[in-house]
Amino acid sequence: xxxxxxxxxMQQRFAEFLVFGGxxxxxxxxxxxVAAGYSPNRARQEGSELCNPKLSxxxxxxxxxLREERIRKHEVTYENHIAELARLREAALKKGSFSxxxxxxxxxxxxxxxxxxxxxxxxxxxxDMSEQELESKMKxxxxxxxxxxxxxxxxxxxxSSHKKLETPISPKK
Length: 173
Fold this sequence. Notes:
Elements: H1 9-20, H2 29-36, H3 43-51, H4 57-73, H5 78-95, H6 99-111, H7 131-149, H8 155-166
Helix pairs in contact: 1-2, 1-4, 2-3, 5-6
């Protein structure tokens, strides 16, 4: 028994159902075989055999081509991302509401790795620190992050803020 030279119509339908799914979403090999027209009694075995490259090399090759096509169709690139944002912006301007469209596209970009979330998490309680530790910590923060907040540590500012902390606050009448 030789290998067939081309796919049958049922084999093509099976591969398409398996890769793209049906009306209700993704399908298993068995479900795809039944949907393609194979007997429900043998659908599980047919699905397995059709996916086996040794038994059905043409079907396995076609499955690979369909999967590559699906990946290319939904691929997110920097150029596509920017173009889609522009299209959404124009559509949103016409309709007057753009918040959800921009958020959806931003999330699409995050999924593609175009954005990086950076967070700094510091632990510990200020109440547990002594006065000297607090001053030293404030100086360290200003040294480390001063360029981000456009502040340069200044000894007179630190001591004046320290004096402000020592001044008791009286309730207003």
